[in-house]
Amino acid sequence: MARIGTGRRVPSRKEKVALAWLAEARRAGGAARFQRPRQKEGIGGPALVYALCLGLLIGWYGPEWAGSVHRPRPTVPVQSLPADILFADFGFCHRGGGTNCVVDGDTFWFKGEKYRIADIDTPETHGPRCAAEGELGAQATRRLQALMNDGAFSLERGDRDTDRYGRTLRVVTRKGESIGTMLVAEGLARNWDGRRHPWC
Question: How far apart are CA 118 and CA 167, in angstroms?
């Protein structure tokens, strides 16, 4: 823009055209459309700090959050115990057969069938090798009778169905716990390992 003698600036031809065009636009009501848009101000200090913290949190915990949202929770299978449905009133039958009776610490009759408890061995009561074995066998016999009369039970099949004497081999359980294991814990029986061991 050139200056004249009074000190005022004289607009150039190009500036005059621009001023005239702007004045015409204002009269038409669209001046705002023809003005240069204001530049956006930059992100302020606090906003920048918040944005950085949010980015760090998402980067650190994001994969876990995403995984927990999309990953189904593992279901824990509930193992139901077999229902104990067998029941009888057991007496003693030291000799011969019987219906519901205990022969010794690991043998009993149930509904006319002779059973040998498959997971234990108890002292002999018929022909014990010493007095101590006979006494311990008698205790095991009385305890087995008490346990068999203590409520409903189950008979679980093991590796073999019968022994060499024709007795049915079963593990006697109540609420999933072996009655034979109870006798072992009380010192009245041993875990069966496939062979008999002396009690004297």
Answer: 10
For residue 100, what are its two tokens?
């519901």
Cα–Cα dist 3/59, whole Å: 62
Largest Cα span, the chain:
147
CB 136 within 8 A of CB 188: yes
Instruction: Show me where the domains of the chain are located.
Output: 91-191
Query: In this predicted model, what pLDDT tens digit does every residue of 74-120 receive, in sequence order?
Result: 554 555 666 899 999 999 997 767 889 999 999 999 999 999 999 99
12 residue type, one letter: S
Q: Does domain 91-191 have CATH number 2.70.98.10?
A: no
Do 139 and 178 meet the contact criterion of CB atoms below 8 Å apart?
no
